[in-house]
Amino acid sequence: MPGAVVKCVGVVMLLVIATTGCATLESNPKTSIGSLGGAAFGGLIAAAAGGGGAAIAGAVIGGALLGALGGSMLDQRDKRMAAEAQQKALESAPAGRPVAWTNPDSGHQGTVTPVRTYQSGDTYCREFQSDVVIGGKNEKAYGTACRQPDGSWKVQG
Amino acid sequence: MRTGRFCLTAAALGLLLIHVPAAAQTAASPDVRAWMSKQDGNGDGKLDRGEFHQAVVEAFFLRDKDKDGFLAIAELTEASPEALKAIKRKDDARISLQEYANALFKDFEAADADSDGLLTVEEIEVYRKRTR
Questions:
Q1: Which end of chain B has the least Cβ crowding within 10 Å, N or C?
Q2: pLDDT tens-digit map of B93-132
Q3: How many domains in chain B?
Q4: Residue range(s) defining the domain that contains residue B81
Q5: For chain A, domain boundaries
Q6: Mind telling me how many Å the CA of A25 is from chain B's nearest CA?
């Protein structure tokens, strides 16, 4: 499998994990990350449609494999830090201002940047961009998340 | 007479209070330009209604700390009681995003000196100084 596709899959997975994982994993630690990734996969494909890598990866690779690949590329600390950054970015960062995370142990780093905010009914939703450096290469992905009553943010799709 | 309270008109579209440091508000040209540049999605150097509306939504979201979809009117330092009364339909102590946007679009219209539906940095500056 081409390395670029693998990296794009990793970015997509990070988006899913960071957005759904923060609250969900804490409240239900037995929930597998792979299954969470599959649940929001469709939304990420739609969000990234026309954006290149993420859409291509999503079209080619199934949800189960996607979860396995994403899990192998990012360690638990990566995922936790990304989730914290994503929560902080979506909850309080102005549009255009990135919130960064860095894991010195793995060498992985990234940013989460809100792009646009809107209301859907009584709910806030925010489009966002996630940048992740994996293997020294910067990968981008885009998504939309809506705020849940418990304060977590859930990827739409 | 200065009241010390920014009204909707004096607040230079209110949103600047969110994004421009208070100390810079008396001579805000560089900050207004920076703010304008940030909101100017199509890069034409002017703020159209869509760009302005997005700035309003972003500002409201950031002001809404408990994320309940409303702001307490008492906390709206950029709005005068008179202006709020004009756009409020219910006599409660909070304001919705729609009411907030309606109030701030009144400023948009007032600041748009040539009525072309676009705000320039100069129009904002003139408006701010005129209404301060």
A1: N
A2: 788 898 888 888 888 888 899 999 999 989 988 887 776 6
A3: 1
A4: 15-131
A5: 3-155
A6: 23
Cross-chain residue pair B62–A147, CB shorter than 8 Å? no
| Local structure of residue A138 (DSSP, 8 states) | E
Q: Which residues contact B51 (CB under 8 A, 6 or more apart)?
A: B39, B40, B41, B42
Interface predicted TM-score of the whole assembly (ipTM), two decimals: 0.72
Q: What is the mean pLDDT of residues B72-92?
A: 65
The mean pLDDT value for A116-139 works out to: 89
Whether B108 is in a domain gets the answer yes
Q: Between residues B86 and B111, which one has the greater pLDDT? A: B111
Contacts of A16 (CB under 8 A, 6+ apart): A36, A37, A39, A40, A41, A44, A70, A155
Which residue of A94, A118, A124 is in closest CB contact with B67?
A124
Query: Is the residue at B40 inside a domain?
Result: yes
Distance in Å, alpha carbon of A32 to nearest chain B alpha carbon:
29
Does the reported pTM lie above 0.80? no
CATH of the domain at B51: 1.10.238.10
Give B-chain residues touching A124 at CB under 8 angstroms. Answer: 61, 67, 69
